[in-house]
Amino acid sequence: MMHKQTNDISINEAKEALDSIAAANRVAFESVSPPFWLRIMLALLIGALTIFSAWSSGSGLWTLVMLVTLVLIMLTFVSFYWVLCSKGIKLLINPNNTTDKVISLVGSFVSACLLMISIELYRNGYTWV
């Protein structure tokens, strides 16, 4: 004769399990997210890149400063990626499925079109662009 076993857990056991899952999520998030100083530095560099790209129109010096800022941003991203890889964390850079690839291509195309339109508007005298 077989007895039916139930795997009921108590409320306290369920709370402990949820707390354990929440703690694991916190640890995973803290190990992957960049430190605060790096986020601030990237925000400042990206803001500086925006300003320097606006100032670089017709000026070789500001174009050079913009390119140096762009290189610093890229080095920062690559170094953080390297740090994560050294911890054994693999980041997904390229999209896996077709929908994500299409969204990436459409977003890139729209960004390129907006950039070309803003350049043409600026050349035609609309300096507010």
Write the layout of secondary structure elements.
Blueprint: H1 11-32, H2 36-55, H3 60-86, H4 98-123
Helical fraction equals: over 70%
**Distinct helical segment count:** 4
| Domains (count) | 2
Which series of helices and strands comes N to C?
A: HHHH
Mean pLDDT rating: 85
Structural classification: mainly alpha
User: For the CA atoms, what is the radius of gyration?
Assistant: 25 Å
Q: Which descriptor suits the 3D outline?
A: elongated
How many β strands by DSSP? Answer: 0
Biggest sheet details: none
Note the gap between the termini. 82 Å
Fraction of residues in β-strands: under 5%
Low-confidence stretches: none
What does this protein look like?
With 129 residues, the protein is mainly alpha-helical. It has two domains: 14-91; 94-129. It is built from four helices and no strands. The longest helix has 27 residues, at 60-86. The model has no long low-confidence stretch (mean pLDDT 85).
Main attributes of the structure:
single chain; 129 residues; mainly alpha; 4 helices; 0% strand; elongated
Brief sketch in words of this structure:
74% of the residues lie in helices and 0% in strands. With 129 residues, it is mainly alpha-helical.
